[in-house]
Amino acid sequence: MKPVMQRADIPICDIFPREEIDAMLATPRATDVPRYWVLELSQARDLRDQAEQFPDGSERLIALMDSADAIHGRVHTWANVLN
């Protein structure tokens, strides 16, 4: 089984790929990332994935990307404070 992302990976990564988030949700004991953080990262990934359907520069794409980045920023801050 491939190793699951850990809390120490958050400060050095962008928003985790969907596969990584799904692995953390499926096997929560395999990661030290708190479940609430995983749910937040999942929401950020959902927003990023939705943004891909909009053309570059569109208001909706920018809004979705900004929201995803804000969520990721919160989790990134929590990880830096608690690591």
Structure description:
It is a single chain. The chain is mainly α. It has one domain. 60% of the residues lie in helices and 0% in strands. It has helices at residues 18-26, 35-51, 59-82. The longest helix is centred in the last third of the chain and has 24 residues, at 59-82. It is globular. It starts with 17 loop residues before the first helix and ends with a helix.
**Structurally, how many domains make up the residues?**
1
Give the averaged pLDDT, no decimals.
90
Rg, Cα atoms, Å: 13 Å
**Major sheet summary line:** none
- DSSP strand count: 0
Structural class call reads mainly alpha
- Cα distance spanning the termini: 25 Å
* Number of DSSP helical runs: 3
What pattern of helices and strands is seen along the backbone?
Answer: HHH
Oligomeric state of the chains present here: single chain
Helix content: 55-70%
Please state roughly what percent of the residues sit in beta strands, choosing from under 5%, 5-15%, 15-25%, 25-35%, 35-45% or over 45%.
under 5%
Residue runs with pLDDT of under 50 for 5 or more positions: none
> What's the overall geometry?
globular
Put the structure in a nutshell:
This protein is mainly α.
